[in-house]
Design goal:
Elements (H helix, E strand, L loop, with lengths): L1 H13 L1 E2 L2 E2 L7 E4 L2 E4 L1 E6 L2 E3 L4 H4 L1 H7 L7 E5 L3 E2 L13 E2 L2 H8 L4 E3 L9 H14 L3 E3 L1 E2 L2 H5 L2 E5 L2 E10 L14 E2 L4 E3 L2 E2 L12 E3 L1 H17 L2 E8 L7 H6 L10 H13 L3 E5 L7 E4 L2 E4 L4 E4 L15 E10 L2 E12 L17 H4 L4 E3 L2 H16 L5 E4 L2 E4 L4
Parallel strand pairs: 5-7, 6-23, 7-10, 8-9, 10-11, 14-19, 19-20, 20-22
Antiparallel strand pairs: 1-2, 3-4, 5-24, 12-15, 13-14, 16-17, 16-18, 21-22, 24-25, 25-26, 25-28, 27-28
């Protein structure tokens, strides 16, 4: 009897007719043999994946060690870079390129939802956008954030799971190249431009006397419209932003000088994420700093202001974004029951700063064994796990978030 009722609820929760749930709101709980049965959906979020090689070949032990932490109906990361086919090289673009097989490696870890919007998505120009779209589509990977035009780049991706449909809306702000933003007739990234008074704040230069930051009205309208659209067609909506815009300093200045503002979202970003939740976002997750930031619960929905790095194959020439905290991250596992947030658990992660073999300290474009095996994740344990979680708890206090640490994990207190 219980199995039959469970199957019925699964079926009803999974299918939709037009803009309406097929009776999903009618059947919320079943009393079976004195127990309450509820529809549960789990989303696992990792930091950004700046991956350069097929880890199944270059570092198979990493997959075995981290895979147990990536469990759930939805497992999410951001692919930081562009796919390059054989014969294509950095001579045609910038340095953050990866072979198609990195997608197979991510799938082998369980990732089934990818954000593709970031400042390196256009590192091979239009060719890289087309490569990435083609290779993800061939593998059946649900993704969002880039497209053949701005409508496609802004459109939600829909992942159908056994426990409901999850939508993804993805964008990027700051350090987006002048031709990397998708337009009506140009492939590219779904960009959220940020204005500081009457000038754009692209995080490329210091703007000491500029007015307060605000999202571009047209970009904001497009993103919020797609969040609302996704809400009509999905059980839950995940909204992603790859952000490099803090206040009025260039991104490079902030990190070269170790400014305190690198550790928290700017006021404009908090207001913007609240608007995204108000539009229908159930989870907001960000990368870009790339450091851990705090977590806020706004109207019963979690906002992860930055989850740092999950795979960080960063070249040793980019020293200004390397500090001890860059090699620490966290995986967040979120459980919803009948659309209500019931649990958030955080598991800290550490990345290795030194890869195997010899680094090329003169070029950011060299792809070698050192780079392929650098910045790979492993579970943080013991004292280091405690330090990472304690720092994250401290960063979250400003938003009224209470985090309870239990050994190598932490739970966020939720009001019910």
């Amino acid at each position: 009897m219980r199995a039959c009722l469970s199957n019925l609820v699964n079926c009803i929760g999974r299918y939709r007719i037009g803009r309406y749930r097929a009776c999903a709101g009618i059947i919320a709980l079943w009393w079976v043999a004195g127990e309450v049965w509820a529809q549960s959906l789990t989303i696992t979020l990792a930091g950004q994946s700046m991956i350069r090689s097929d880890l199944r070949q270059s570092a198979p032990q990493t997959l075995a060690g981290i895979r147990p932490l990536l469990q759930g109906d939805v497992i999410f990361t951001n692919l930081e870079g562009a796919i390059a086919e054989p014969g294509q090289s950095v001579a045609q673009g910038r340095g953050f390129l990866a072979p198609p097989e990195v997608l197979d490696a991510l799938q082998s870890l369980g990732f089934n939802l990818l954000a593709l919007s970031d400042n390196h998505a256009f590192d091979l120009g239009v060719t890289g956008i087309e490569n990435t779209l083609r290779e993800t589509q061939q593998r059946g990977i649900v993704c969002a954030g880039i497209g053949e035009n701005v409508l496609q780049a802004a459109a939600p991706g829909y992942l159908h799971t056994a426990h409901g449909t999850v939508a993804l809306v993805a964008s990027a702000s700051g350090l987006i190249g002048p031709t990397a933003s998708a337009t009506a007739d140009r492939p590219g990234v779904n960009e959220l431009r940020v204005h500081a008074g009457d000038q754009l704040n692209e995080a490329t230069e210091d703007l000491p006397d500029a007015a307060a930051n605000r999202p571009d009205a047209m970009d904001a309208s497009r993103i919020l419209r797609n969040i609302r659209e996704a809400k009509h067609h999905a059980s839950l909506v995940v909204v992603y932003q790859h952000n490099h815009v803090f206040e009025h300093h260039a991104f490079s200045t902030i990190f070269t000088e170790g400014m305190a503002e690198r550790l928290a979202p700017a006021d404009w970003l908090r207001r913007w994420t609240h608007a995204e939740v108000d539009a229908g976002a159930d989870v907001v997750v960000m990368h870009g700093a790339p450091l851990l930031h705090g977590v806020e619960i706004y109207h019963g929905r979690p906002i992860f202001y930055d989850l740092g790095n999950f795979i960080y194959n960063v070249p040793p020439t980019l020293t200004y974004i390397e500090e001890p905290m860059s090699w620490e991250s966290a995986i967040a596992t979120i459980q919803f029951v009948d659309g209500k947030l019931v649990k958030i658990q955080l598991r800290p992660v550490v990345l290795n700063e030194n890869g195997e073999g010899q680094p090329d300290v003169h070029s950011q474009y060299t792809n070698n064994q050192f780079l392929d095996t650098r910045g790979l994740p492993a579970p943080a344990l013991g004292v280091r796990a405690g330090y990472i979680l304690a720092r994250m708890a401290s960063l979250s206090q400003a938003y009224g978030t209470v985090m309870r640490v239990h050994g190598d994990t932490a739970d966020i207190e939720l009001s019910h």
